[in-house]
Design a protein that fits this description.
The structure is a single chain. By secondary structure, the chain is α+β, with helices and mostly antiparallel strands. The chain has two domains: 5-64, Arc Repressor Mutant, subunit A (Orthogonal Bundle); 76-155, Glutaredoxin (3-Layer(aba) Sandwich), CATH 3.40.30.10. 41% of the residues lie in helices and 10% in strands. It contains seven helices and four strands. The protein has helices spanning 5-15, 25-36, 41-51, 55-64, 84-88, 91-102, 144-155; strands at 76-81, 115-120, 132-134, 137-139. The protein has a four-stranded mixed sheet with strand order 2-1-3-4, covered by helices on one side. Helix 2 packs antiparallel against helix 3, helix 3 (41-51) crosses helix 4 (55-64) and helix 6 (91-102) runs parallel beside helix 7. The longest helix has 12 residues, at 25-36. The N and C termini lie far apart (45 Å). The relative contact order is 0.12. Bound molecules: FE2/S2 (inorganic) cluster (FES). Residues 81, 83-86, 122-126, 129, 131 line the site of FE2/S2 (inorganic) cluster. FE2/S2 (inorganic) cluster is lined by residues 81, 83-86, 122-126, 129, 131.
């Protein structure tokens, strides 16, 4: 599915700020993902054309970063850190709890496509684990009770067509 004209325009406007189109790649991927929910090969090729890059270079970046989704599924994607510091703070138990709460295993989406649960490598917030990324927002010092409240809130949150999923704040804050 081709990008909407508004998205194409936004990507061109972002690219115009830089001397080289590839400098705009990350924000361009966000624009496309915000519109389409995930990044298909067709979309990546379109972005490559807009930025004067090769499709393979665009695909390499989109595949490297866990915040970009190559497959559709999950309006709300929970990316829970499973690396050592978070694991020592209870990430594994938290992931099991979330699997039970959502009725899916890590790596899967709920049948209605609303939620996806992923276990990812270090999110760079090791001092406040367990940590989860939801959209572009970090949730720190998570407990089963905190993730329950986040999931429950998102169960009824509206999902406007064609827009990125709304976010909620958790009570957990990074430690200083
Ligand atoms: S180990 Fe979890 S954020 Fe670094």
């Amino acid at each position: 599915m081709p990008l909407l004209p508004e998205s194409t325009q936004r990507i061109r406007a972002i690219a115009a700020r830089y001397p080289h189109g590839q400098s705009a790649l990350i924000p361009a991927l966000y624009v496309a993902q915000g519109e389409q929910g995930s990044l298909s090969d067709e979309t990546l090729a379109e972005i490559a054309g807009l930025l004067g890059m090769t499709p393979v270079d665009v695909k390499a970046v989109a595949s490297f970063y866990t915040m970009f989704y190559r497959q559709p599924g999950g309006k709300f994607v929970f990316q829970v850190c499973g690396t050592l510091s978070c694991a020592l703070c209870g990430a594994e138990e938290l992931i099991r709890h979330m699997e039970e709460k959502l009725g899916i295993r890590a790596g899967q989406s709920t049948p209605d496509g609303r939620f996806k649960l992923e276990v990812v490598e270090c999110l760079g917030a090791c001092g406040s684990g367990p940590v989860m990324l939801l959209g572009d927002r970090y949730h720190h010092n998570l407990t089963p009770e905190l993730v329950d409240s986040i999931i429950d809130e998102l169960k009824t949150a509206p999902l406007p067509e064609g827009l990125p999923a709304p976010q909620v704040e958790s009570a957990g804050k990074p430690e200083r």
